[in-house]
Amino acid sequence: MLGLLLSACASGGATTVIDDPHDEVLCAIAKNPGEYDREEVVLSARYVTDNRHEEVLRNSRCSDGARILDIGKHGAASSVARFYAEQKRVCLERNSPGLCNISACVQVSGRIRLTQDRAVFDLEDVRHFALDDER
Question: Is residue 4 included in any domain, yes or no?
Answer without folding.
Answer: no
